[in-house]
Structure to design on (762 residues):
């Protein structure tokens, strides 16, 4: 096969590319330039879009003896990922830019171009497995639970999976690092990237403030009593507990969480863990890996990149997915993706539009 | 490999390799006073004389540098600073809009840091700066001009500008002219004294010499403030221990390239015209970038530059690379990222068309087989790149 290896300059994508070479494929390394002003992104060694990362990727390709190019997807990335991220926060939602990047950039713009240019598949360093099922390829969780990235790949449909390769899905991160060292790849000891790649200093709120400006408002409790103030609703995520800066303690001394974000009235509502609890949610824009499930089905639903998967029953109707959790869950925020699992297998995903609280006050709609 | 990127760098001539490698084991700093130093100094001065003779300069005009970028920086910054020091009104730098980044970015830096006022001289649709454009720009206020910088031949589209005419205009107003001739020396006739240019940049690796060595030719009566400070080795204008072996290799290459220039230009022009005719016949909607008149004073003999609307140049490059054919998209890179070329934008192309550019450049090792190979492969490659491009456009 002719394989395009997306190489971020990190240890994972380097080893993934190396394994494709070993498997006898004709591999070409491509670094995706996500910024038109690369220096403004990250000068350290933990991202996926600095000049330093491009150089690391190039050096890894040299060691593997494969051709290497840089593809400029900066404009596409700006529009489909960064602007989307800002606009979602502006509307009080909590987006996941990595998921968006996989959906719109890596397995759309890049995959399309690769196929048109004569490649058969795109390979990345994601920790996830593609297993052959009765109806075609299935996406499954990685063997390494600490590194599993199937959540951010839940947006891929079957056609995209047919052309995707994740050579690290069966491996532990420690094995991948050891393998990188054994192969003489200089990135073997490079730290993992954790932050959002286009916010190099990790200050997401500062980034959003620079884009959206100050928009001060009140922090209130669920009875409407004013508890404090904030500089912009974009600084908050539903379920957030830290950094609320409410002067007075709760009467019962128990922790308070963000329950609601209303950018229109610039109001952030906080309350107790009980008030936060959610019984179900409605997802929109569903994407299925294969034929959409019919009738109510049992599955588990993950709604954060590193969160737990909660048992639930889902029912698909038209363009929506109704999710009824088996028990109360906390910290579900509109804008996040709900990824549906059956065992280790990813069935599909949907974007969370609304949640249904257990405490009566509330449908949170944004 | 079919190497069609000689404008990026061209293989070293065997004579240059020999001259250079013979000196690698020999000790001696040309600035030292003992016998070993004198021997090295002799090589440097003989090389200087060789180069001076080849390009119509006096030996004392030649400053050795590390290459084209340093020479451009030294000329533009050095002449700007010296001219402004002599008369603080001189802040304007008149510069061709399609210059190499080594000139353009230097001017931009001087504007940001040193209060220079850049004036970008318009180029015509083939990329040529006209003497009238220079005249008009100077005449607006001649007393405020620090210098003019216009390239002899454009590195992307190969267009040759009328440097002697431009020099005459500058001379008339008493304004110094710097000329980046990196692509010109060895490709077309270049005579420093006859051209009337005050400072001329060229470099070794574009004409069969080693990488990392070049020259700035500056008339003795033009003041240049140093950029690199130190031992003052080159007329107190450029410091740094001279690289004797590289300079010897450089001189050998200049001597041979200039001596063979007429014959080689004839050979390359024939190959180039076959590429142009072949591409036009096989890919009818391709656009030739630069001057369609391939005359000796119009277009570099080894340059064939095309736009393939609907394609992205870097896709064409990658597909040709996979077939063992080396070319360029023609634009400068940061971390290998293709940006639409400022040269093509200055010539009036829109961004999308500018991104479809591919440059084939011929040199002393080029053969008719190279051309045949390219013409056999290119139509299929462009077709495939176009499908990828259309898909991208549809998704937009």
């Amino acid at each position: 096969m002719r394989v395009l290896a997306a190489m971020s300059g990190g240890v994972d994508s380097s080893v993934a590319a190396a394994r494709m070479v070993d498997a006898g494929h004709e591999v070409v390394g491509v670094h995706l330039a996500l910024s038109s002003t690369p220096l403004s992104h990250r000068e350290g060694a933990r991202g996926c879009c600095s000049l330093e990362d491009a150089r690391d990727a190039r050096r890894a390709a040299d060691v593997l003896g494969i051709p290497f190019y840089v593809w400029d997807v900066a404009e596409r990335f700006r529009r489909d990922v960064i602007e989307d991220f800002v606009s979602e926060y502006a509307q009080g939602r909590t987006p996941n830019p990595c998921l968006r990047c996989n959906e719109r950039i890596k397995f759309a713009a890049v995959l399309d171009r690769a196929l048109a240019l004569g490649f058969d598949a795109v390979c990345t360093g994601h920790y996830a497995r593609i297993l052959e099922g009765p109806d075609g390829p299935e996406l499954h969780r990685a063997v390494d639970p600490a590194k599993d990235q199937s959540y951010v790949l839940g947006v891929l449909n079957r056609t995209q999976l047919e052309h995707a390769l994740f050579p690290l899905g069966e491996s532990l991160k420690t094995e991948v690092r050891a393998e990188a060292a054994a192969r003489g790849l200089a990135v073997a000891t490079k730290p993992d990237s954790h932050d959002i790649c286009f916010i190099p200093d990790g200050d997401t709120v500062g980034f959003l403030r620079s884009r959206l400006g100050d928009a001060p408002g009140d922090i209130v409790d669920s009875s409407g009593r004013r508890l404090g103030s904030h500089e912009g609703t974009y600084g908050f995520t539903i379920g957030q507990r830290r950094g609320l800066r409410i002067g007075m303690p709760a009467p019962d001394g128990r922790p308070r969480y963000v329950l609601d974000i209303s950018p229109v009235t610039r109001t952030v509502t906080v309350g107790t863990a009980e008030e936060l609890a959610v019984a179900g949610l409605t997802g929109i824009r569903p994407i299925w890996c294969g034929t959409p499930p019919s009738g109510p089905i049992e599955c588990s639903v993950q709604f954060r990149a590193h969160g737990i998967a909660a048992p639930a029953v889902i029912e698909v109707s038209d363009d929506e997915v109704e999710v009824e959790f088996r028990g109360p869950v906390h910290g579900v925020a509109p804008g996040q993706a709900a990824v549906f699992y059956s065992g280790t297998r990813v069935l599909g995903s949907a974007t969370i539009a609304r949640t249904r609280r257990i405490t009566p006050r509330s449908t949170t709609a944004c | 490999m079919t190497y069609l990127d000689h404008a990026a760098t061209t293989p070293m001539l065997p004579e240059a390799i020999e001259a250079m490698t013979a000196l690698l084991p020999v000790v001696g700093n040309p600035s030292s006073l003992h016998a070993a130093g004198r021997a090295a100094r002799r090589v440097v001065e003989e090389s200087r004389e060789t180069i001076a003779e080849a390009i119509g300069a006096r030996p004392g005009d030649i400053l050795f540098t590390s290459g084209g970028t340093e020479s451009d920086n030294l000329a533009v910054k050095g002449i700007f600073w010296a001219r402004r020091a002599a008369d603080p009104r001189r802040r304007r730098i008149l510069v061709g809009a399609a210059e190499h980044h080594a000139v353009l970015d230097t001017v931009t830096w001087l504007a940001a840091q040193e209060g220079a006022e850049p004036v970008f001289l318009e180029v015509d649709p083939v990329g040529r700066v006209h003497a009238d454009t220079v005249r008009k720009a100077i005449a607006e206020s001649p007393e405020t001009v620090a210098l003019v910088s216009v390239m002899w031949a454009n590195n992307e589209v190969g267009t040759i500008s009328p440097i002697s005419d431009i020099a005459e205009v500058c001379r008339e107003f008493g304004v110094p002219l710097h000329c980046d001739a990196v692509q010109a020396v060895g490709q077309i006739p270049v005579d420093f004294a006859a051209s009337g240019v005050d400072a001329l940049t060229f470099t070794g690796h574009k004409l069969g010499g080693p990488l990392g060595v070049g020259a700035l030719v500056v008339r003795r009566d033009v003041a240049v403030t140093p950029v690199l400070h130190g031992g003052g080795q080159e007329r107190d204008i450029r410091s740094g221990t001279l690289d004797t072996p590289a300079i010897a290799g450089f001189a050998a290459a200049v001597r041979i390239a200039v001596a063979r220039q007429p014959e080689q230009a004839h050979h390359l022009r024939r190959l180039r015209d076959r590429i142009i005719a072949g591409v036009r016949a096989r890919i009818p909607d391709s656009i030739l970038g630069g001057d369609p008149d391939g005359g000796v004073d119009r277009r570099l003999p080894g340059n064939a530059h095309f736009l393939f609307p609907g394609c992205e140049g870097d896709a064409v490059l990658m597909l040709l690379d996979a077939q063992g054919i080396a070319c360029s998209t023609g634009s400068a890179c940061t971390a290998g990222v293709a940006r639409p070329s400022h040269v093509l934008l200055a010539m009036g192309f829109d961004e999308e068309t500018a991104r479809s550019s591919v440059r084939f450049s011929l040199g002393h090792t080029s053969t008719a087989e190279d051309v045949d190979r390219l013409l056999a492969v290119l139509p299929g490659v462009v077709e495939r790149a176009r499908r990828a491009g259309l898909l991208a456009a549809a998704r937009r």
User: Anything to note?
Assistant: Chain B touches chain A at residues 314-315, 318-319, 321-322, 333-339, 384-385, 387-388, 391-392, 395 (CB under 8 Å). The first strand of chain B starts at residue 2 and ends at 3. Residues 14-255 of chain B form a domain with the Aspartate Aminotransferase; domain 2 fold (CATH 3.40.640.10). The longest helix of chain B spans residues 244-282.
